[in-house]
């Protein structure tokens, strides 16, 4: 009768593969004075590898957990970069237009930052920002 707290995993080693030969050589000549058993050595080696990988992509559930974790993707960053670039470009155009034109420039609504006023009196250009309270 099998014990419920023990499970078995078999390993097939191909002696034509250099990596498999190294593993076979170490496992067959393992120093028992240092290592308790071949089984414990394999468990320690696999556990060390798992810890060094930080459990990334080693199990099937990790990919789903990563998607659900709310990480930002490269596509999200590219979208934010393009949005910021357009906002900066529009603000520069407004500033240049205000500097080249005469008088007061109209009030401009910014979608996230609140409201900005650009005022020109003579050669002096003033930008005032007022943060809007969002409900």
Structure at a glance:
This protein is an alpha+beta fold. The protein is built from 4 helices and 3 strands; from the N terminus they run H-H-H-H-E-E-E.
Strand and helix map with partners:
Elements lengths: L17 H11 L9 H15 L7 H9 L5 H27 L7 E3 L3 E8 L2 E7 L5
Antiparallel strand pairs: 1-2, 2-3
Written account of the structure:
Strands 1-2-3 form a 3-stranded antiparallel β-sheet, with helices on one face. The mean pLDDT is 76. It has helices at 18-28, 38-52, 60-68, 74-100; strands at 108-110, 114-121, 124-130. It has 135 residues and is of the alpha+beta class. The protein has 4 helices and 3 strands. It is 46% helix and 13% strand. Among the domains are: 18-68, no CATH class; 71-101.
Distance between the termini: 67 Å
Helix fraction, binned, reads: 40-55%
Counting H and I runs of at least 4 residues, what is the number of helices? 4
How much is the radius of gyration in Å? Answer: 32 Å
Shape: elongated
Spatial strand arrangement across the major sheet: 1-2-3
Secondary structure class reads alpha+beta
């Amino acid at each position: 009768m099998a014990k419920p707290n023990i499970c078995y995993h078999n390993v097939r080693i191909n002696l034509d593969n250099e990596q498999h030969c190294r593993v076979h050589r170490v496992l067959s000549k393992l120093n028992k004075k240092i290592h308790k058993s071949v089984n414990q050595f394999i468990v320690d080696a696999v556990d060390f590898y798992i810890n060094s990988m930080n459990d990334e992509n080693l199990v099937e559930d990790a990919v789903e957990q990563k998607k659900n974790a709310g990480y930002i993707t490269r596509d999200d960053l590219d979208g934010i970069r393009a949005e910021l670039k357009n906002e900066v470009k529009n603000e520069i155009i407004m500033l240049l237009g205000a500097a080249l034109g005469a008088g007061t420039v109209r009030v401009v609504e910014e979608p996230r930052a609140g409201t900005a006023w650009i005022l020109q009196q003579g050669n002096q250009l003033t930008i005032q920002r007022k943060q809007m309270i969002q409900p």
